[in-house]
Specification:
By secondary structure, the protein is mainly β. It has no helices and ten strands.
Length: about 100
């Protein structure tokens, strides 16, 4: 991609892969000693650290998250968002997820 702005010479574009991410927070209950899986949930959408950008080469690609079905779903962490959720999800996420180990 090239860009020619006002009073600028031609600027050569450069490809850079990145991800726009929604962050999880972690509980402090799960551990090997307590024999419980760690639970995570989304950082609330109004928190300044809820979203961010990440270099695509820093991504762990082998994590298995399991919804904690008994807590159900919620729309509290993030209000209506056509970007963060599919329309079929009805603006809901699982309340918590287990991190499988």
């Amino acid at each position: 991609m090239n860009y020619m702005g006002p009073n600028l010479e031609l600027i050569q574009g450069e490809k850079f892969d990145f991800l726009f991410v929604r962050w999880y927070g972690r509980d402090m209950v799960g551990s090997w000693c307590s024999k419980c899986l760690h639970q995570i949930d989304f950082v609330p959408g109004n928190d300044s650290s809820a979203f961010g950008f990440l270099n695509s080469q820093e991504v762990i690609r082998a994590v298995h998250l399991i919804p904690t079905f008994h807590y159900g779903k919620t729309s509290n962490p993030l209000p209506h968002s056509p970007i963060a959720r599919w329309e079929e999800e009805k603006d809901e996420d699982w309340e918590y997820y287990y991190v499988s180990m």
